[in-house]
């Protein structure tokens, strides 16, 4: 088995038919007003209304309007159905409304209605502290593995060549810069981080999410003892990397303005559902949407 | 609730002495008051006792072993007195005429006083024996700046604990929510890279080895001393200042002596980097095992570098110099930049440079010279004097002798007649003495300049002096090092090429 991109139609079908059944399972902080922003990525850039502004392939939308002093005024999404409508037809349901910077209405263009290649939410929340998320990427693991296998002495070899030499590009999923083994390895690391959170950091509420090309590990306790600011998160990064030797993306942990893939959203490049998982034995092939299975 | 003041409460005194930047002028002055109160007996001030103690403190601070010992056992056993003595000593130093226009950061003796204060304070803290004070200090040392989420609401340091799980030592407990990279302590490695992480994790807290607290506190205390000094300086009235500088003599005299004997590195911070480098190399060469390298011989940068690597000096400034030499290449570059140094000769040998460092001409036992006769304390001069009883002098002997006298500080500004008269007074003791001949010879010498510069006095490497030399290894003196020649003489030296054998 290998992987493929989801088509525009498949993406639409997924968000219309399958995704609504997962909405009740979303973490409780994912609401119409919870995160400060939702964000969408498109495969092709889509124009905005104002002339001279470049086309956008990534848009962020605030969940609330704010006034000049930054206080919240009115909500952009009244309930999660509004978010869902925005995901299905971003240009028609753009919360920016008639603003110059809203996406151009597809009816005015020859171009088709844009479909989200990925759906994100902001880690920064209105009603709770900034969510702690650790990102472990199969690409990093694959690249390290390739360096070890090929023993690239000067370490400056071209990434593509290195992966090719290590046989990673040919291994399933073919053509991707990692193998299934690397994803499995990422998942193992993910559960290791969860154990560290629980054992060494007294966390009670944790979550491991298969992200499509790796895992996200969440520490969700919101008591004062777990309100880690950027500096504490830098320390956590250093510890995970140096003491526990877990290959993580440190930038994601320490930057509160980051967005994370929305659980149960579709990773359209690999045609996989971003899935909260309970065990390191999770089979990534099971994350393929039901509506798209042949 | 009224807060107890450092005047009557020892704990408060310790807090202010250890964390002065956290307090205002009032509290710091109360700490000084507590110190001054020790010099009031039955309502009578005892300025003499204060003066004796501060002179003792100030002069002790110039001794490296005293400073080091104070880290183990306090030199002064009360925080208030320590603050008073250290700041007053520093004020006396700053009042020395030599430092009138010098920025304090250039004055080495101020660093010495501060080091004695910091070491003393560190050992006092240990003796105070109350962990809660260390905990208060840790709050300051490990606190992070408030971020977007505001300051961490709880305590930064929630305890100082033994953690048998992590080995037998004490750890500072810092909740993860209060943590910053300051808390991540790495072992030092030989290569200077960060070694194994010594900070441990447990129970949503970091455990930082107490040793790191000591290191961080020393850095902090260095800055803290500045604040104490500033408050004390503002605190003193003009009369008190005049009293202090008029009556204090021991510290000033010690500084004068350093100046007179050419111990510039004890006075000035980072004094003459080239001179410091050569001195350290000389020490390293002397200290090298198996005589692989020796003074007065040519060696490659690699050989000299190996000697530096093996050398483990005690003095802080020497360690600094060594640390700056990271490879044979860096040593070579450093020496090339000092190629004019009188004790250094660089010779190209098969496309690589070889370097010769010569025996010290400075930094040896100083000699007070009040009258010309005092010069005969030098063994070579005594030998010469002895020989002159038996035999007429070689002409060069007289010239050399006259040049040496010309450079003595007391003759720098006197007129020629005085010098000639005094020299004739010395020469007249010898049987060959002829007033007219000597008079002529001396005047001839004085009129003889080298490109307008007064000729340098001879040094120990001077060929004519060698006939009287008892051997530089045996001699506790050196001519250039022991005699109180003025800075201008050495300035002139650094402008001359070669290794000092030119006359």
TrEMBL record, chain A:
This is DNA primase.
From TrEMBL, chain B:
Residues 274-358 form the Primase-associated winged helix domain. It comes from the Archaea. It holds the Pfam family WH_Halo_primase. Residues 12-261 form the Primase-associated N-terminal domain. Residues 381-498 form the Primase-associated C-terminal domain. InterPro entries: Primase-assoc, Primase-assoc_C, Primase-assoc_N, WH_Primase-assoc. This is Uncharacterized protein. It comes from Haloferax volcanii (strain ATCC 29605 / DSM 3757 / JCM 8879 / NBRC 14742 / NCIMB 2012 / VKM B-1768 / DS2). The lineage of its organism: Archaea, Methanobacteriati, Methanobacteriota, Stenosarchaea group, Halobacteria.
């Amino acid at each position: 088995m290998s992987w493929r991109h989801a088509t525009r139609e498949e993406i639409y079908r997924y968000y219309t038919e399958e995704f609504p059944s997962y909405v009740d399972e979303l973490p409780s902080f994912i609401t119409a007003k919870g995160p400060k922003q939702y964000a969408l990525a498109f495969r092709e850039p889509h124009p905005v209304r104002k002339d001279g502004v470049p086309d956008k392939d990534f848009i962020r939308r605030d969940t609330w309007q704010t006034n000049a002093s930054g206080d919240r005024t009115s909500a952009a999404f009244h309930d999660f159905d509004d978010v869902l409508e925005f995901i299905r037809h971003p240009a028609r349901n753009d919360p920016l409304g008639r603003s110059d910077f809203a996406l151009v209405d597809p009816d005015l263009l020859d171009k088709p209605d844009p479909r989200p290649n990925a759906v994100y939410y902001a880690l920064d929340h209105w009603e709770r502290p900034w969510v702690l998320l650790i990102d472990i990427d199969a690409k990093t693991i694959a690249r390290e593995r390739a360096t070890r296998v090929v023993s690239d002495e000067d370490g400056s070899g071209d990434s593509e060549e290195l992966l090719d030499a290590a046989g990673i590009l040919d291994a399933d999923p073919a053509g991707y810069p990692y193998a299934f083994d690397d994803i499995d390895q990422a998942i193992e690391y993910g559960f290791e981080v969860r154990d560290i959170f629980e054992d060494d950091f007294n966390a009670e509420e944790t979550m491991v999410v298969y992200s499509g090309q790796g895992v996200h590990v969440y520490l969700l306790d919101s008591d004062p003892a777990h309100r880690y600011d950027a500096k504490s998160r830098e320390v956590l990064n250093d510890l995970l990397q140096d003491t526990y030797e877990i290959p993580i993306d440190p930038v994601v942990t320490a930057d509160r303005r980051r967005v994370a893939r929305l659980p149960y959203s579709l990773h359209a490049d690999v045609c996989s559902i971003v899935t909260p998982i309970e065990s390191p034995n999770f089979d990534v092939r099971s994350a393929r949407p039901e509506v798209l299975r042949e | 609730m009224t807060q107890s003041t450092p005047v009557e409460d020892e704990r408060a005194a310790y807090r202010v002495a250890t964390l002065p930047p956290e307090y205002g002028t009032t509290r710091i002055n109360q700490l000084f008051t507590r110190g001054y109160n020790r010099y009031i007996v039955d309502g009578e001030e005892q300025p003499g006792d204060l003066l004796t103690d501060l002179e003792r403190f100030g002069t002790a601070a110039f001794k490296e072993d005293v400073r080091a010992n104070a880290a183990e056992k306090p030199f002064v056993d009360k925080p208030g007195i320590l603050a008073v003595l250290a700041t007053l000593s520093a004020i006396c130093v700053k009042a020395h005429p030599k430092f009138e226009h010098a920025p304090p950061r250039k004055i080495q003796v101020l660093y010495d006083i501060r080091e004695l204060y910091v070491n003393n304070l560190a050992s006092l803290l240990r003796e105070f024996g109350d962990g809660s004070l260390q905990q208060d200090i840790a709050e300051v040392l490990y606190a992070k700046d408030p971020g977007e989420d505001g300051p961490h609401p709880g305590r930064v340091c929630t305890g100082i604990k033994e953690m048998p799980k992590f080995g037998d030592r004490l750890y500072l407990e810092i909740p993860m929510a209060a943590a910053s990279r300051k808390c991540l302590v790495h072992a030092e490695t030989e290569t200077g890279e960060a070694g194994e992480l010594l900070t441990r994790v447990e129970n949503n807290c970091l455990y930082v080895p107490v040793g790191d607290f000591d290191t961080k506190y020393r850095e902090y205390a260095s800055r803290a001393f500045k604040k104490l000094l500033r408050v004390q300086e503002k605190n003193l009235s003009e009369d008190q200042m005049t009293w202090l500088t008029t009556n204090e003599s021991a510290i000033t005299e010690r500084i004068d002596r350093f100046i007179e004997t050419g111990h510039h590195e004890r006075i000035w911070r980072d004094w003459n980097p080239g001179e410091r480098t050569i001195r350290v190399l000389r020490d390293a060469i002397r200290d090298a095992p198996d005589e692989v390298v020796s003074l007065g011989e040519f060696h490659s940068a690699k050989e000299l570098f190996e000697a530096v690597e093996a050398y483990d000096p005690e003095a802080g400034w020497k360690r600094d110099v060594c640390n700056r030499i990271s490879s044979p290449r860096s040593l070579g570059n450093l020496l090339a930049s000092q190629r004019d140094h009188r004790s250094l000769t660089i010779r190209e040998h098969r496309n690589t440079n070889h370097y010769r460092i010569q025996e010290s001409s400075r930094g040896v036992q100083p000699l007070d010279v009040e009258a010309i006769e005092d010069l005969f304390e030098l063994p070579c001069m005594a030998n010469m004097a002895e020989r002159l009883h038996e035999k007429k002098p070689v002409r060069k002997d007289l010239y050399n002798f006259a040049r040496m006298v010309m450079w003595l500080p007391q003759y720098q500004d006197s007129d020629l007649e005085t010098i000639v008269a005094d020299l004739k007074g010395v020469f007249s003791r010898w049987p060959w003495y002829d007033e007219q001949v000597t008079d002529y010879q001396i005047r001839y010498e004085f009129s003889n300049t080298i490109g307008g510069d007064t000729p340098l006095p001879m040094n120990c490497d001077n060929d004519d002096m060698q006939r009287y030399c008892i051997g530089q290894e045996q001699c506790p003196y050196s001519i250039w090092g022991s005699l109180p020649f003025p800075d201008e003489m050495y300035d002139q030296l650094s402008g001359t090429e070669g290794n000092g054998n030119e006359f």
